[in-house]
Write the structure tokens for this entry.
Amino acid sequence: MRRAIEAVPAARRLVPGLRVVMVCGLRIDPRSLPRCDGVSYRPYVPQLYRHLAACDLAVVQGGLTTCMELTANGRPFIYVPLRHHFEQSFHVRHRLDRYKAGRHLSYDEAADPDGLAAAIAAEINRPIDYRPVASAGAARAARSIAGLL
């Protein structure tokens, strides 16, 4: 989060009018983060998936659920897996590659504020050509379970 905040001034120079909403979650106090013009801080956002579906670009850590919600909604995003996190670095990346979704930045690449800002500027208006995400999984699971009952 701090790295993303550090990239905001450079990103705002590259993307005039850029507005950033920093969603901190339940465990991080927004007041513990550095203040930056153009950034609003939220401790928790109920129904975050709705905000993700409406965003122009998301910069996320690389968790599978968040990345797949962005993919299913056809939203541009940059994901930065935690260094040495197997699931985020390999499983999630492999799955997103199959969907041609998101832009991967390594943890070290995201450390450079100018590099992250350039990635934000490049991705925010990029046309999306993700493969469609199947959405009938719950119905298939229910039919399978019903057959066992």
The two ends are 47 Å apart (CA to CA). The helical segments are 2-14, 48-54, 64-72, 86-99, 113-124, 137-148. Strands lie at 20-23, 39-42, 58-60, 77-79, 103-104. The chain has one domain: 2-148.
